[in-house]
Amino acid sequence: MSEGRILFVDHAAVLGGAELSLLDIAIALRERSNVVLFEHGPFEERLRANGVAVRILGGSGALRSIKKSSTIPSARSVLAVSNLARDLARTAREHEVLYANSPKSFLVSAAAAVIARRPVIWHLRDIIDPTHFSAANIRLMVLAANTRAARVIANSRATADAFVAAGGKPQLVTVVYNGIDPRPFEEATPVSRATLGIDEDAFVVGSFSRLHPWKGLRVLFDALEELPNVQALIVGGALFSGEAEFEMELRSRANTDPLRGRVHLVGARDDVPALMATCDVIVHAAIAPEPFGRVIVEALLARRPLIAANAGGVREIVENGTMAILTPPGDVAALRDAIELLSSHPGRAALMMEAGARHVRASFSRDAMIAGVTRVIEDVLA
Questions:
Q1: Burial (CB count <10 Å: 0-12, 13-18, 19+), residue 3
Q2: 208: which strand partners?
Q3: What is the rounded CA–CA span in Å between residue 101 and residue 9?
Q4: Do 341 and 325 touch, CB atoms closer than 8 A?
Q5: Closest among 24, 15, 22 to 125, alpha carbons compared
Q6: Sorting pLDDT into bands at 50, 70 and 90, what band is 107?
Q7: What CA–CA distance (Å, rounded) separates 163 from 333?
Q8: What is the mean pLDDT of the chain?
């Protein structure tokens, strides 16, 4: 096996799903790698706490002007990418391969790889289609991947298929599913409902995601309006630009009848396994295809019954009816009916929960993910 040094690159320092996945990979490979971030934040702190070397280049402010919906790149964004690429290239020369963890970090890494004459791997964790990205951004990402990426790691077959459908070269792509350590979820103790403001005898649905409109919280709120005996625990924060306004919308609606006192927004938390254990059902209500769906695996590892949107990578994780109830994205009535079904048939909910837990524990392990990523890196370095 080659011992070439790896430079992991991420534009963000928040603790989203992409960062939590990279955290496990970087910890496993910390003896031969560094991580470069473009800003300070919780992800940096978690990496350092686990003995991973981190460098901060800065430049995140300028990169914020580059949106998924952008059409024509501004002079400021082009200059930001160019400056970051030059800075990154200096660090890249100390390594044998760059490994980009997001679209923004990939575009910077692809430019830096040209300067430093190093290969670059892109860990693709997004569905590249018009639901999520502008046509201009899709063309730019696919062109950069086809001309500069040594390999593209996709976190699901849905992600891989969208990349190829957008014009990406299929021979570049390897699917490596995310893997999650089951122990924190299997060992978690429920949080006291009283400390969360939740009635002890309430039927509680939990939602665990960043607060972005495409995650489907409006759909969940609509369903809850027709379920007066159900309360909701909403865990997650506004991670990226523009999401703070959506959080304000949700908090305002949660304080309005008929949801008042039944919807509990607790923000981003470090005790997700314990909070999941507090819920009767976990709901994933995304209105657009989920690239993978980390919360799907986590919910089942926590042995909670699951309702999820039937699109994207979710369909590769669980089987509808035997491991979870999958509902059409954006279908309020179907989500309402699924919650009612699981609340009134606990025996059926328990059977699905146990089947799902066995499946995800066997199929989406952290060790399998790390092994798959390492194989791709070694192939590129060979």
A1: exposed
A2: 235
A3: 6
A4: yes
A5: 22
A6: very high
A7: 32
A8: 94
Q: Residue for token digits 């009848």?
A: 257
Reported as type and span, the H/E element at residue 34 is strand 33-37
Question: Which tokens sit at 220?
Answer: 């969940």
Secondary structure (3-state) at 312:
strand
Burial of 370 per CB tally in 10 Å (0-12, 13-18, 19+): middle
Q: Which of 255, 299, 250 is nearest to 275 (CA)?
A: 299
Q: Identify the bridge partners of residue 140 per DSSP, sorted by sequence position.
A: none
User: 3-state class of 324 per DSSP?
Assistant: strand
The whole-model pTM stands at 0.93
Query: What's the full length of the chain, in residues?
Result: 382
| Three-class SS state of 382 | coil
Is the predicted pLDDT of residue 97 greater than 70, yes or no?
A: yes
Please tell me whether residue 44 adopts helix, strand or coil conformation.
Answer: helix
Phi, psi for 138 (deg, rounded to 5): -60, -45
Quick one: CA dihedral 174, 110, 120, 123, positive or negative? negative
Nearest Cα neighbor of 382 from 150, 123, 182 is 150
Distance CA 6, CA 374 (A): 11
State both tokens at 345: 């048939």
Tokens of 22: 């990279």
Q: Round to whole Å and give the CA distance between 340 and 334.
A: 10
Q: Between the CA atoms of 162, 293, 300 and 196, what dihedral angle is there, to the nearest 10 degrees?
A: -160
The three-point CA angle 144-149-155 to 5° equals 100
Tokens read off for 208: 């665990």
pLDDT tens digit sequence for 181-235: 999 999 999 999 999 999 999 999 999 999 999 999 999 999 999 999 999 999 9
pLDDT tens for 57-71 read 976 666 666 666 666
pLDDT at 1: 40
Percent with pLDDT over 70 in the chain = 95
Cβ–Cβ < 8 Å for 296, 185: no
- How far lies 298's CA from each of 171, 266, 303, 359, in Å? 31, 18, 9, 12
Q: How far apart are CA 113 and CA 117, in angstroms?
A: 5
